[in-house]
Amino acid sequence: MSTASSDSNKPSTSHDENHAYHNVQAVAFAGEGDEYVIIGNHKYYRHELMHAFLGTFNPDRYAKYPSNEFGNASALGLGCFALTTFVLGLYYAHAKEIKVTNAVHGLSIFYGGLTMYCAGIWEFFMGNNFAYFTFCSYGSFWLALGCMNVPSFGILAAYEDPVMLENAVGLFLLAWGLYTFMVVLLTFKSTVVFVALFVTLDTGFFVLAGAYMTGSVAAMKAGGIVCVISSCCGFYGMISGITNRYNSYFIVHSVPIPEIKRKSK
Predict the structure, then answer these.
(1) What is the pLDDT of residue 18?
(2) N or C: which end of the chain has fewer CB within 10 A?
(3) In this structure, how many other beta carbons lie within 10 angstroms of the beta carbon of residue 225?
(4) Coiled-coil ranges per the record (predicted)?
(5) What are the φ/ψ torsions at residue 251 (nearest 5 degrees)?
């Protein structure tokens, strides 16, 4: 690694730029096979950082593994997402001939919604911006979906035309599909399962939106199956975030996305 020869060679910066300059941590590699990653004054195994991606819900390629005295809120948030999505996905897929999804809405309000939102707030205080952003957003999605199906709110009852109701729900899901597509773009420097989670979730939103707006039962089942696949990725991340060599006989590892390096001029 090369460093500036002297402070006098540094360009003059504003206070904010100078603050940002001093907070940038250099990244280097060591070992015969570059198995170590050196970030600042800390040395990590490369596989430990990759293990941190999904388990701590941070897509930054060289994110420092969090060290704090609190628990892993990302594992909780992933569990909230995975369990709620799994149940709703099975309902949409008409498992056991279930066509009414109301039984999942208590889960979507209190676990998928409220608890996931709280997990996002906890990640905010731990400095994980991506987890804060996504958990609070999708926690709000589950809260909105659950409240839509609470009769006392009168949200669905306000639609007297059933066709308008289906189109309204379809547009609601379509908007979340577009939102998730933008989130997908932030994950391509992480791991395979991390990307798979958001790609399948995004696919599920679009397929279910089409199912509502067209009335296609086959599309509804397909959307449910895709949601189940996405939830399995969430379960994988949840286990990745809480398993270690002290509480488990096996360690969950993630497969990193190959890094695309720019050719030097």
Answers:
(1) 45
(2) C
(3) 18
(4) none
(5) -115, 130
Angle subtended at Cα 59 by Cα 58 and Cα 64, rounded to the nearest 5 degrees: 55
Structure tokens given for 86: 């799994």
Q: How far from 36 is each of 43, 46, 49, 67, CA to CA, in Å?
A: 7, 5, 10, 18
* 21 has pLDDT over 50: no
Mind listing the pLDDT tens digit for each residue in 148-184? 999 999 999 999 999 999 999 999 999 999 999 999 9
- Give the pair of three-digit tokens for residue 239: 């286990």
What residues have CB less than 8 Å from 247, skipping those under 6 apart? Answer: none
Nearest to 173, CA basis, from 59, 88, 231, 102: 88
Give the Cβ contact number of residue 226 at 10 Å: 23
Question: Can you say how many angstroms the Cα of residue 29 is from the centroid of all Cα atoms in its chain?
Answer: 28
pLDDT more than 70, % of the chain: 73
Choose among 38, 22, 47: nearest CA to 252: 47
DSSP state of 36: E
The domain spans of the chain are 73-242
Please give the helix or strand (H or E) that residue 135 lies within, else none.
helix 129-148
**Reduced DSSP (H G I as helix, E B as strand, rest coil) percent helix, strand, coil of the chain, to 5:** 65, 5, 30
Write out the H or E segment, with its range, that includes residue 27: strand 27-30
Tell me how far the alpha carbon of residue 161 is from its chain's centroid: 35
Cβ contacts of 10 within 8 Å, gap of 6 or more = 4, 21
Q: Cite the beta strand spans of 36-119 per DSSP E.
A: 36-39, 42-45
